[in-house]
Design goal:
FAD/NAD(P)-binding domain; 509 residues; Enolase-like, domain 1; single chain; five-stranded antiparallel β-sheet; 23% strand; 16 helices; seven-stranded mixed β-sheet; globular; alpha/beta
């Protein structure tokens, strides 16, 4: 029997979730003599590696070890619950802002408990894909418990010893805890605990203005909280395109999120009035009182207790050290996902896992040798509007000494965006000077995360703006902004002589 786990609140949905991703009556199997591949960690990267290796039809012996919940952050405390919660908050915002569309709505009342119940229900409902039972049926030996390397060929979990030919570390990362005096004593929320809320905090303080902090700030504000966002730099989302970040910042201010920028949180004090966050900014010392504090200041890799020193796997505060093939300093052991990569996204972990499958199983036969650096990685921040990006930013191109031009199409010039009332945004495409080669793109739009894939496909397929200009886009759609950007490039190809000839022919017709 495995060590039982619980998730607050232990309602029917969370009970069902646990029965899928960490069944408390699970009995670990008897290990085979030697596994071809053992994976530590059953988040996205680990699950893709295990399922992919077992599904090759080669009769490989594969095992996976998970100490907590299969599905990792994405299913349990990341993408799935957060985007479910974001959807509820978007509906609330649309109802409040329905008047310009000719719809009169009464006061919007958010049932926060019902919102969170829906999050738990949907999370449980899709958990079968990551369940222990499903992977057992795929032919993977599933071990629940904490893993550690006993030596360079053996992993110990519970009272079992798993001998292996190769192993993959996919233990992920966790929310970082900033070193703020009084924070631990006052207690705080992270993405790992926030979805256990059943009562809405009246006042919520969020420390960190990156993607996680911003998504939660807008979501809780729209669900009826008074949100205060504290960020160390002079702009939220400061790693994104400046124009994109400015749109999100102005949206937050318009929606009532209180921003404190360029501030340093010095201490937290728990009082009878609430949790007091003391900070210093350009105006001097100040403080704000809230009911709950949510931390969103980065991620720390899960490398503790693995006994990596014993097997020659090097790591630091950023995670396990890997080469471009995702091989650790022990050639028999690979890593994938948040534990070793700067890209901390579910889709990045999935892509890395596919590289690991090729390099662990096929490279000994002269095949594989896939590289992490060959990936074209898009990402999105799911604020409203969303911010999506792929490829280089302007500063990246400058740092590489590349000459480039930028084409920007504001959505206020796109018919569908006008009809939708979603004109706050743009498509910005960076291309090599004198060429249609796309270097990068940023999109700010209601569904920017969907729109960016067209540009990603063009980059991966080595197709440029000429190709995008020749693609027929349904009218009216917001994706037409991409074609408009490509058309702008095409018009630059017209020389003065060709323009004069075209004007002459037009008059003749």
């Amino acid at each position: 029997m495995v060590n039982p786990v619980t998730i607050d609140p232990m309602d029917v949905h969370n009970q069902f979730l646990i029965s899928q991703v960490h069944p408390n009556d699970w009995i670990n199997p008897e290990p085979v003599d030697r596994y071809d591949l053992v994976v530590i960690g059953a988040g996205t990267a680990g699950l893709v590696v295990a399922a992919g290796a077992a599904g090759l039809g080669l009769g490989l012996k594969v095992a996976i070890v998970e100490k907590h919940l299969m599905g990792g952050d994405c299913l349990n405390v990341g993408c799935v619950p957060s985007k479910t919660m974001i959807r509820s908050s978007r509906i609330a915002a649309e109802m409040r802002n329905s008047h310009p569309f000719g719809i009169q709505s009464s006061d919007v009342e958010v049932d926060f408990a019902a919102v969170m119940e829906r999050v738990r229900r949907i999370r449980a409902g899709i958990s079968d894909a990551d369940s222990a039972q499903r992977f057992q049926k795929l032919g993977v030996d599933v071990f629940l418990g904490e893993a550690r390397f006993a030596d360079a060929q053996t992993i110990e979990v519970a009272d079992k010893s798993l001998r292996f030919k190769k192993a993959v570390i996919a233990t992920g990362a966790r929310a970082s805890q900033p070193n703020i005096p009084g924070l631990a004593e006052a207690r705080y929320l992270t993405n790992e605990t926030v979805f256990s809320l059943t009562e809405r905090p009246r006042r919520l303080g969020i420390i960190g203005g990156g993607a996680i902090g911003c998504e939660f700030a807008q979501t809780f504000q729209r669900l009826g909280c008074e949100v205060v966002l504290l960020h160390k730099n002079d702009h939220i989302l400061d790693r994104e395109d400046d124009d994109a970040a400015e749109i999100i910042q102005q949206t937050f201010l318009r929606e009532g999120v209180q921003l404190f920028l360029q501030c340093t949180v010095e201490r937290v004090e728990k009082t009878s009035e609430g949790k007091v966050i003391h900070f210093k900014n350009l105006n001097g010392n100040d403080c704000v009182t809230v009911d709950e504090i949510l931390i969103g200041v980065g991620r720390s890799p899960n490398v503790e207790k693995l006994n990596l020193e014993a097997i020659g796997v090097e790591y630091d505060k950023r995670g396990v050290k890997v080469n471009d093939y995702l091989q650790t300093t022990n050639p028999k052991i690979y890593a994938a996902g948040d534990v070793c990569m700067n890209w901390k996204f579910t889709h990045a972990a999935d892509a890395a896992a596919r590289i690991v499958i090729k390099n662990t199983l096929f490279s000994p036969f002269g095949l594989g040798h896939s590289k992490l650096s060959s990936l074209v990685m898009p990402w999105a921040t799911y604020t409203d509007p969303e911010v999506a990006h792929v490829g280089m930013y302007e500063q990246d191109a400058r740092a590489k000494g590349l000459e480039f031009d930028t084409i920007k199409i504001p959505f206020e010039k796109v018919d569908r965006a006008i009809a939708d009332g979603e004109t706050d945004g743009f498509v910005k495409i960076l291309h090599k000077k004198g060429s249609d080669q796309i270097l990068g793109a940023t999109i700010v739009a209601r569904h920017a995360g969907d729109l960016i894939s067209e540009v990603t496909l063009a980059i991966v397929g080595k197709r440029g703006l000429n190709t995008l200009s020749g693609v027929i886009h349904p009218y009216p759609t917001q994706a037409e902004a991409i074609k408009k950007a490509a058309d702008v490039y095409r018009r630059t190809l017209l020389t003065p002589n060709s323009k004069r000839l075209l004007g002459f022919l037009t008059k003749l017709s």
